[in-house]
Task: structure prediction
Amino acid sequence: MRNILVGVMFFLMAMGVAQSAPCVTTIADNYVGANGHGYGDIVGDSNFDVASMQVSASAGNLQVTISGNYFREFLTPNVDGTQLGDLFISTSGWAPVGPAPYVNDQLSNTGTQWDYAAVLSAHTNCQVAGDASGCGRFGGALALYALVGGNQDPRILTSFYPTPGWVAPGYLVRNGQAVQYDAQEAGANRVASATGSWTLDPTAGTLSLDIIDPGWTGTSELWGLHWTMSCGNDVIEGAAGYPMLAENENTPEPSTLILWGGLALMAGLARRRRGQQNV
Result:
């Protein structure tokens, strides 16, 4: 009897762990994107390098850590006053144009349908003269917005120079990449579907985003993610596993687990009684 109870207990514990374990994916910087002006992966120098994106997903929560030299240099003049970008998310899969490294892919022609934007509370490092607003520097709040019309949402901002209207001699941007989402555009009246936080760590060279319980659903177990700075000089994009669909479709509810455990206990007791009768 004791062995049966112990077995049932371990079964239920194992199923609970399977339900709560996050799905972790590391996206390497194998995406180039269109309009690189012949530079390849990084337009400009290594100060703009973005090397990888680690995605940890569990039902309800999403944690993303983006690594690269850009975040070490962000608070210095070496990145020419460029701004942090927002994170774009597709819950229906990742389908860039062409083969890797996707040198023709951009917002206007990509097969990836972006569904959400995780918007930082501040984007600038305040290195540009006269730009003293939104100096988040080391972190702040984050808001998740569902895009209206997907890639056609007019609030999606594509690659731009450090300050609107400013073009430095010889300065190039990777044109046509989604970089930020202007949820506060006049008349937009957008309401965030979830909240979270973001943190910049210049020492580690990381930008971390934590989206809390968005309650979203998707049509694919592989989700697309896209991030780049305001100039688009190095884009990190790729697919990461999201376990929500697998859990919802294949993992039993807690009540079902209890039923299984009860049936296992009853079956064990029945076998034990039969064994006693046969003695």
